[in-house]
Amino acid sequence: MTTTATETLLDPETVASYRRDGFVHIPGVLDAAEVERFRAAAQHEYDTGTALNRDDQIFKQVVNVWTYNETLRDLTLHPKLARLATELAGIPVRIWHDHLLIKKPHNQAPTEYHQDAPYWPHANCRHSLSAWIALIDVPVERGCMTFIPEQHERRDIRPIDLTDAHDLFEAAPDLVFHRRVTHPLRAGDITFHSGYTPHTANSNNTDEFRYAHVNIYADRELTYDGKPHVCTDPLNLTVGQTLPDDHFPPVG
Q1: Within a domain: residue 45?
Q2: Are 139 and 191 in contact (CB under 8 A)?
Q3: Residue 57 backbone phi and psi in degrees, to 5
Q4: CA distance 147 to 71
Q5: 176 domain residue, yes or no
Q6: Which of the residues 23, 173, 188, 224 has the least number of beta carbons within 10 Å of its own beta carbon?
Q7: Is 134 inside a domain boundary?
Q8: Is 249 within the bounds of a domain?
Q9: pLDDT by residue (tens digit) across 55-102?
């Protein structure tokens, strides 16, 4: 079945669930052939790509792979994912950045609870969201995502130390008693979560690598606020400037 550009991919209940909880699980977005193609490219980048922090035991993080890896560019700019992100956000979006997050077997280092957006140099951003794409089956033991629902309107939480299991709950003590939802994923499944949804991923306790590719989408009209960030530092942007399309492509 084909769809036109004006048809929606998501039913109203799915969109409402995302906007209520701050996250949603969408199964089977990529087919088996796509998963295999993109996982092979992710494996290549694990072996050859430059990590953002080479000493990080939580994961190997390779940022903006779309700019040089032709295969993973197809995933970052995948039109179906862009349409899903646009329907969930309800506004036009652009790619903020992508990154591979690869946990080696038995890495013994969870990604502790945090929000994403406090790290980003964004002003006047109406919405941002990440598509967390499983390129291998990710059960709980391999480091799937856990979310704290209905907290994505919070703007009072500072950037959190990803290595400190207590830091989020010291910054926001009330969250200790909120319910948490864990989503194991099959290869090809995606979770979308708001930039302000608190979330975590446990360590990889299996014998296989955990391959995840993340597309981060943000309001197409947001402006740069001047804070340092690896994706904007080389660009000599001015405060108040809209992000340049060649580095942060509009999608959807």
Answers
A1: yes
A2: no
A3: -85, -15
A4: 30
A5: yes
A6: 173
A7: yes
A8: no
A9: 677 888 999 999 999 999 999 999 999 999 999 999 999 999 999 999
